[in-house]
Design brief:
394 residues; mainly beta; 2 domains; four-stranded parallel β-sheet; 4 helices
Length: 394
């Protein structure tokens, strides 16, 4: 065999060997990681074993077609990948209770992110920024911000029980195709989504401010429970599914001047500082209207169609039901009708207390036919959430 053919055969065999070593990989120690440093592309999953201890460096790898997966590796202290630009599948880290550093300075694309019970992780070294991801779920971490998450579109975006998370600013996010949910984070969490124009469901708990100046349309629910903000403003919102404001102790102003359609039920309850409700453009509510509280003035000047029931109860003596009785007589309100002023114990349609200072209960059924999400069934994160919370106390 000539030298030319021998060299060609040798090169081919080396390539085949490299391909064999650049597939699914399990990492038990740094030596395992060093063994794939020659792989610019890892064609499979990279799994970090529970027994791994210390720092992990993934040098030389530029692309992982599968995912990075680790569950219960409690002694991993850091993961660095200085050249990695994309993870084709999931970036799934759960129960890495001593992890303090994620350094992925060139990472821009991830199939999905699921980080749960990482109580020591306080910040992200994502210098270039992740601009593409499917679903993102981050819960029970020590993160104080989400700098480095610079998504333009996202599926589910769920941020739960990150007790030190103080600010979230996703400047580039324009569209969410599934649930956006924030709950159980730092009590005065500030959320800024300046370019979000469309989405499906958005739910918020335990936040001090939310900015959605570009939001125009939601196909699903928009809900707020137990927030700390005084004003909610959505100046460009024209359409949403169910709309819920409950137990927002400081809320005194709701500004949605262009809202025309609620494709579901509209609930306001136990927002005791909300005295005036003015929705000058609202025309259609496909479900029920269920308002209870201490308000004295409600303006729904363009209302043309309420397909569900109507429950309006206020403690205030100056509140008037006259305009709503007229709407009922004109068959604008299609369902059952109840409107009361100067009542000591206003209730929601299902008999629950309508103010934070009173208590009442009756049947748990509603007369609207519309399904309202309550604070109790806003999405939660399961047993790993409890694990993560306990880990933070250690």
């Amino acid at each position: 065999m000539s030298l030319k053919y021998l060299l060609t055969a040798l090169a081919a065999s080396q390539l085949a060997f490299a391909d064999d070593s650049c597939g699914d990989t399990t990492i038990e120690n740094q030596s395992d990681a060093d063994g794939i440093n020659s792989c610019t592309t890892l064609k499979g999953d990279l799994t970090i074993k529970k027994t791994y201890s210390g720092d992990l460096s993934l040098s030389g790898i530029e692309e992982i077609t599968g995912g990075i997966i680790s569950s219960g590796a409690a002694n991993v202290s850091s993961i660095t990948a200085p050249t990695l630009t994309s993870i084709g599948n999931k970036f799934d880290l759960e129960g890495l209770t001593t992890l303090t550093l994620l350094s992925f300075p060139k990472l821009t694309s991830v199939g999905s992110i699921n980080w749960e019970a990482l109580p020591k992780l306080q910040s992200l070294n994502f210098d270039t920024g992740v601009t593409k991801a499917g679903d993102v779920s981050i819960s029970n971490t020590g993160l104080t911000d989400l700098n480095g998450i610079q998504l333009k579109t996202v599926g589910t975006f769920s941020i739960q029980n990150n007790r030190d998370l103080k600010t979230i600013n996703i400047n580039n996010l324009q569209n969410a195709t599934d649930l956006i949910s924030f709950s159980g984070n730092y009590d005065t969490l500030e959320i800024d989504l300046p370019n979000l124009g469309t989405g499906t469901n958005m739910t918020f708990q335990n936040i001090s401010s939310v900015s959605v100046p570009s939001l125009e349309k939601l196909t699903g629910q928009l809900g707020f429970w137990g927030t700390k903000f005084e004003t909610f403003s959505a100046p460009n919102l024209t359409q949403t599914g169910d709309l819920v404001f409950k137990d927002n102790s400081k809320l005194s102003n709701i500004s949605m001047p262009n809202l025309k359609t609620v494709n579901g039920g509209f609930t306001i309850a136990r927002d005791d500082k909300l005295s005036t409700i003015s929705l000058s453009s609202l025309e259609t509510v496909k479900g029920a209207i269920d308002f209870s509280g201490t308000f004295d003035k409600i303006s729904l000047g363009k209302l043309k169609d309420v397909e569900g029931s109507f429950n309006m109860q206020s403690t205030h003596g100056n509140f008037s039901c006259d305009s709503f009785k007229q709407l009922k007589s004109e068959d604008v309100i299609k369902g059952s009708f109840k409107c009361e002023a100067d009542t000591k114990s206003p209730t929601t349609a299902n008999g629950k207390s309508g103010t934070s200072s009173s208590s009442s209960s009756s049947s748990s059924s509603t007369s609207s036919g519309a399904a309202f999400m309550t604070g109790a069934n806003v999405p939660v994160v399961g047993l790993a959430a409890i694990f993560g919370a306990l880990a933070q106390l250690l």
